[in-house]
Each structure stands twice: as C-alpha cells, then as structure tokens.
Amino acid sequence: MNLILLAATILLPGALCIQAGDLGTVPDALKQDLSKAGQTISGQKPADMQDFHLPFNRSVPEEMRRQMIEDMVFISGIRGQGRASVMHRYDFGLMAGDFYIDFFRQHVRHIAFKANKKNNGQIASLYRIGGWSEMRLTAYFTTHDVPQIGRMETLMHEAWHADDRCQDHVPCPSPFPFQGEEGVDTTKLAGERACDGSINGAYGATAIMLQNIVRFCANCSEKVLADAKRYGYYDGYIRLVNQRDRELLDADIKNEN
C-alpha cells in the first residue's frame, strides 16, 4: 500500500506482487520481446527522449508517458565511478544509470494506467503471473510534487517485485518506532503493510540503490544527492522491521567488491 506523508514530499511506494505458477527468471523470448519495445542501453546515455520506447498500453495518458520517459532519461544519465557495494552488485550491478535501465527493461513487461479509487496515495503497483509482469501507474505519478529521484525509486521498487527475489511487504510495527522530521508523519505507517521483513524486499533493495547513489554518483547535483539520502531513509531504512537488516544496510555501503 502507498502512503503519502505530510507535505507530499515523501511518497511511499507500495507494491503488489501477485505470484502464480512458476516464478523463474525472465525467459529469453520475453527479453527479446522487451528489446523490440526499446533497446537495452549498455554504457551510453540516450541522446534524448526519442531513444525510449516503453511498453505502454493505450490506457496510459500522454502526460504520464512523457513524465516516465523523462524519468528514464534522468536515470540513464546517472554516472558512477565503476564502483558499488557488495549488495548493490548482487541486486543491480554497478552504480550507473545503464545498469538500472537494464534491470527495469528485463523486469517490466507492460505498463498500464489504473485509477486509484481508494484515493490512498498509491502511485504504482506490480502485477506478476509466471514470467509476465505489468506495472500499473495511478494519477499520483504525475499529480504529486515528488523529486525525480523519488519517482526513480518508485519505478525501481516496483520493478524489483518482478524479480525472483520478490518478497511481499509485511505490516509495519505498531506503534511505529521511528519519528519523522517536521512535516513528515511516520506514525501513519503503524500497522500498514508498508515495511519489509527482509533486506531482500523492495524497500531494502531500493535503500541499497539510493545509498550507493549518495556515495558513488559522479554527476548528481547536491539536490539529487540530498533527495536520495532522504528517500533512502524514509522509504528504505526505517521500513526494515529487523534491526539486523538495518545493520546490514549500514555495513554494506562501507563494503565494496
């Protein structure tokens, strides 16, 4: 479930990972089909938005398509230093935009629009059955004032739910043990299925990603780095219900391979 904390600055991506049948790796045929929708990028930044042809269906509004493509261009432009933590290498590879783009393309088969009738702040979910996956965006994707790194975190969070390591979220502790800064009401998380019982969950995976961006990004602005640090905490670190997993996250960023 998605929750938006006060001031609409922290968007909390919740994912639905529906599993059925064999959840093996993405078949070669599916990867070939994905490559027809848009070429996988390896080692180079796309020249412009025309380089991205994402597998949208007709339900996705034009404004939402444009926003998502702009976000993918932003992601592809992230430059690293040929470095990454051990867990980041295991999850995504090196800290670089082309690795994130590759991961997204290999895990998201289809992109659709879904109305959020509950009006609960959920901006995206991931539906998966067998080797097929569909990311479903709601109007919140374009109507809320969220920094680009926040939308990137949402896209990668949902893509992670199509990975073999997909783990459903678990209820957050009640009362919730972490306090938010001014304007951020973390008490809303208490009892909500918006935490992870393992660092291999989507909150853990994107926390690993964001703290690697903070440490290793070679061309990120100060604002992007600050946003990444903030989202890594609120949408990552405090969502890990086990202290051991939080300790692993702290240790990982100091451990390169």
What can you see in these coordinates?
This protein is mainly α. It has one domain. Helices cover 38% and strands 8% of the residues. A three-stranded mixed β-sheet has the order 3-5-4, with helices on one face. Helix 2 packs across helix 4, helix 6 (148-160) packs across helix 7 (202-216) and helix 6 (148-160) packs across helix 8. The radius of gyration is 17 Å and the shape is globular. Residues 1-47 have low confidence and may be disordered.
Helix-residue proportion: 25-40%
The average pLDDT value, as a whole number, equals: 80
Spell the H/E element sequence. Answer: EEHHHHEEEHHHHH
Count of alpha and pi helical runs? 9
Give unreliable regions as ranges: 1-47
Percent of residues in β-strands: 5-15%
The helix-and-strand class reads mainly alpha
The domain count comes to 1
Q: Please give the radius of gyration in angstroms.
A: 17 Å
Report the span from N to C terminus.
34 Å
Characterize the largest beta sheet: strand count, sense, and whether it forms a barrel: 3 strands, mixed
Shape: globular
Number of strands: 5
For the biggest β-sheet, the strand order reads 3-5-4
